[in-house]
């Protein structure tokens, strides 16, 4: 799943590449992806891009008052092809839609077992239900400790699940939640309500470190190489059976995640 650092890199690329350019053609290969059925993508033809913004893990392309909102979900991503031919999707992925501009083609892809990409054509990005419900953006430098305290509340919800809850704080998914909790030395199974002041501070510092580091590292990486760059940078996520980077033990799957999340039980002790 692309998370805020990868989506931020894509946003910067598209902003630089598309601003001022005109849509000359659109094609929707998978009609289920378009959630605003009464607004066909053909409305975009002839319009110029005036801006590209990120909302959590979503991208909004502003075409002079018409907004193409792209939600990548679990397995969506993008391709870019110069000229008038779309780049082939990665192996195992399908091309969901293409938007052809006067100097290149943006492709939207999905590699999941079920369709996860969502496209909306709206007059305002907040007309997209998932965007309207987003909490404060965890990847923004201004995301403060107080913002984190409000997101955590006094809830008896496990930290890994809460970090991925977009209505509480936007932009973090499965991989970076593992990374943040490892750096903070907090168990993914601990409840938010159990954290003391020092642990909340550690969690905020880890969140800032991991996301700031990732946003900087992904900037300028070609679209097609973003996934590999993300995987290579992981400390614990996806590294089941490998030694803990701190030398404290072996990375294991988080109980209950069916292999979808990883941690070091030696330095992220589970709550009693």
Overall description:
- The protein folds into 2 domains: 129 residues, MutM-like, N-terminal (N-terminal domain of MutM-like DNA repair proteins, Alpha-Beta Barrel), CATH 3.20.190; 119 residues, Orthogonal Bundle (Helicase, Ruva Protein, domain 3).
- The chain starts with a helix and ends in a 9-residue tail after the last strand.
- The chain is elongated, with a radius of gyration of 19 Å.
- The protein is α+β, with helices and mostly antiparallel strands and 272 residues long.
- The model has no long low-confidence stretch (mean pLDDT 94).
- Helices cover 27% and strands 20% of the residues.
Secondary-structure blueprint of this entry?
Layout: H1 4-18, E1 23-28, E2 51-55, E3 58-63, E4 66-71, E5 76-82, E6 94-101, E7 104-110, E8 118-122, H2 129-132, H3 145-152, H4 159-163, H5 174-184, H6 197-218, H7 226-233, E9 252-253, E10 262-263
Antiparallel strand pairs: 1-6, 2-3, 3-4, 4-8, 5-7, 6-7, 9-10
Helix pairs in contact: 1-6, 5-6
Rounded radius of gyration (Å): 19 Å
Count every beta strand, where a strand is a DSSP E run of 2 or more residues.
Answer: 10
Return the domain count: 2
CATH fold-type name of the largest domain: N-terminal domain of MutM-like DNA repair proteins
How many distinct helices?
7
**Roughly what percent helix?**
25-40%
- CATH superfamily label of the largest domain: MutM-like, N-terminal
- CATH arch. level architecture of the largest domain: Alpha-Beta Barrel
Low-confidence stretches: none
What sequence of helices (H) and strands (E) makes up the elements? HEEEEEEEEHHHHHHEE
Can you identify the CATH class of the largest domain? Alpha Beta
Kindly name the structural category. alpha+beta
Mean pLDDT: 94
**Cα separation of the termini:** 32 Å
How do the strands line up in the largest sheet?
1-6-7-5
Query: Main sheet?
Result: 4 strands, antiparallel
- How much of the sequence lies in strands comes to 15-25%
Overall shape = elongated
């Amino acid at each position: 799943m692309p998370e805020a650092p990868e989506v931020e890199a894509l946003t910067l690329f598209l902003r630089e590449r598309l601003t001022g350019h005109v849509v000359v053609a659109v094609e929707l290969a998978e009609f289920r992806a378009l959630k605003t059925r009464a607004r066909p993508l053909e409305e975009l033809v002839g319009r110029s891009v005036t801006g590209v913004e990120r909302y959590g893990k979503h991208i909004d392309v502003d075409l002079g008052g018409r907004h193409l909102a792209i939600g990548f979900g679990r397995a969506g991503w993008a391709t870019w092809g110069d000229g008038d031919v779309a780049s082939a999707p990665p192996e195992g992925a399908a091309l969901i839609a293409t938007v052809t501009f006067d100097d290149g083609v943006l492709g939207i892809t999905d590699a999941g077992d079920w369709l996860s990409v969502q496209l909306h054509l709206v007059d305002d990005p907040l007309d997209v239900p998932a965007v309207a419900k987003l909490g404060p953006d965890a990847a923004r430098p201004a995301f403060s400790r107080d913002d984190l305290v409000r997101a955590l509340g006094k809830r008896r919800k496990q930290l890994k699940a809460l970090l991925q809850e977009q209505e509480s704080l936007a932009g973090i998914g499965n991989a970076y939640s593992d990374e943040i909790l490892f750096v903070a030395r907090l168990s993914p199974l601990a409840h938010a309500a159990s954290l003391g002041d020092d642990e909340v501070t550690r969690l905020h510092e880890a969140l800032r470190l991991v996301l700031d580091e990732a946003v900087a590292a992904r900037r300028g990486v070609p679209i097609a190489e973003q996934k590999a760059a993300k995987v290579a940078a992981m400390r614990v996520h996806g590294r089941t059976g490998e030694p803990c980077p701190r030398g404290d033990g072996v990375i294991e799957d988080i109980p209950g995640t069916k292999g979808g999340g990883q941690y070091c039980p030696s330095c992220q002790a589970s709550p009693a």
